[in-house]
UniProtKB/TrEMBL annotation:
CDD domains reported in the protein's UniProt record: E_set_GO_C
Galactose oxidase-like Early set domain: residues covered: 519-614
Keywords for the protein's UniProt record, in alphabetical order: Signal
Lineage per the UniProt record: Bacteria, Bacillati, Actinomycetota, Actinomycetes, Kitasatosporales
Gene3D superfamilies per UniProt: Galactose oxidase/kelch, beta-propeller, Immunoglobulins
Coiled-coil boundaries: none
Start and end residues of each stretch annotated as Disordered: 37-64
Signal peptide start and end residues: 1-27
Transmembrane helix found in the keyword field: no
Domain Glyoxal oxidase N-terminal stretches: 202-513
Name of the protein in its database record: DUF1929 domain-containing protein
Biological process annotations from GO: carbohydrate metabolic process
Comp. bias intervals (Low complexity): 45-61
Amino acid sequence: MSGSSLPRARRSAAMAAWLVGCALTLAAVTPVPVPAPAPGPASAPGPASASASASGEAAVLGREHAREHARLRDAAKGAQGYPQSKRTASLAAHRASQERTNRAFADAESGRFAAYFPSPDFGVHVAQLPTGKVLLFSFERVEADPTKETGPTGTVGRTNAGRGYLWDPAKGTGAAAFTKVSPPVVLMPDGHYAPRPAPFFCAGHAYLPNGMVGVFGGNVGGKGGSGAKLSFVFDPWTETWFRNRDMSVGRWYPTAVTGADGRQIIMSGQSERGTGTPTPVVERFPALRHPVPWRPFDIPVGLSAERLRTDAPFRNDYPHLFSLRDGMVYGLGRDADQQWRFDPVREVRTDLPRRPADFRGYGSAVPLPAGFRGPDSVLVLGGDPHDPFTYRLSGGRWTTERPRAFGRTQDDTLILPDATLLTVNGALDTRDYGHGPFNPRADPKYRQVELRDARGNWRLGPAQRLPRGYHSNALVMPDGRVMVTGDELQQIANDPDIDDAMDGSIELYEPAYLHRGARPALDRVPAGELGHDRAFEVTSSTPGDVARAVLLAPSTVTHSVNTSQRHLELRITGLRGGTIGLRTPPSPADAPPGYYMLFLLDGKGVPSVARWVKLGVR
């Protein structure tokens, strides 16, 4: 029987016995001097004594055994400061209040939260892969008490490390559905040069045309959080990370977006000099001297990025970037006066009008569906707990749009297959859910989703299990459900077993369209690449039910920043038996090359299960 399946009392006793055994081993082999008591209140050992202790343990127990020993000590301290009973009671209370709240909502009108289950990762970063699996990555926690900073933001050395997992929905929701996909081991320029899985958390990411995920930046540690020059690609086909040449500058909290040519534009992020030093340098990956990775076996490894002639002097991190139908990249900063349009071909930047609202923190932004063409406008929402209004940039002008029920930050807004919008997650501010920072108590309103119809009207919907603010995320899956995860503070505060290996949690939301009758069928799509403005055919065993065909780009999202979202209607050109004729979007500017989820919808907006198609011909 594994340790995780033992009753808590037996498992705790076993852990205690193991630690005692280690202590006896240390005592038997190495005489341990007893230090004189320090004056004043008790305090943690200083860096020198902690380092000496760790070195002594490593010499006797071995490096990995000593690291596990230290991890268990840290976990025990976190459990004492915030006991398991408190976490268990909190989770039970959230479940009960969720059930009470959601009795008022009909599934066919507002959807429902249908599943809640443990995850081995916090989901600070998530990406829907064209294999159907979901990539989650973040960091190894350094603290189990949610009233303290749990991540290694300011940590220098080996414990400042990243981790990654794949979730396969086809295998269900248990531990067996997750596979560990650790990033490459690196040596960070932090003075320690201790090998550890790359600390790529709080990076920026976007898709390449071959379905791979480019990940740029990360955390070196110290200086309030300093930027790493790291550049990686995750290959969903081999489920492997590959490292590329470092960027020219460090980036912590950067943003990346895929342009019409399939290359990725990277902007902003705190530099290697530490927090308060956002870099204005703009880079492109891969550099023009390298071909764009196009086929699944075109693995970018050792490739370089290149600096653009223009700069992007954002004062704050994680700007929203969107590649719209005119081929330009729109950079929408958090400061109202930092709204720019970038030409990635001519490498120039031009000013856009000042946004009507003042500074906005972590809030979402969505390129609005525009029918058969690519998006030409963006809706900015959230980021200010005192402002419920939404703001639209279209044709170089800002307009104030209909408000949501209340202001919130840390929210995630998604385009659904039927072209409606869904907002999940949210908080008052970073680490504050209405009762002060690092306080797991939360205002219940932040747990309710909001729904925007085709006319732009918003209404509240059902409540999710946990409040999820900073580092929360969500994405649309190929079966039309929405995966909700993230926010390590709330996940740790509501962990049903803080001693096991499942640190996080995932919730699944079923939109209303999944409760309005049978789905249309999408049986077959072309296996090869589809050119732009080209006719193609799909087959369906329910052709009479099909009213619309839609391409929905997959999401890769973090910190309320989702640059990859895109929704396009496809022209239906004919119907012959079970064969449906369709036409792809006009150009790569309308729909950048890469993998898309193709949905067929009926007249009530009920979608088929999506099938993946690849847009763009090399």
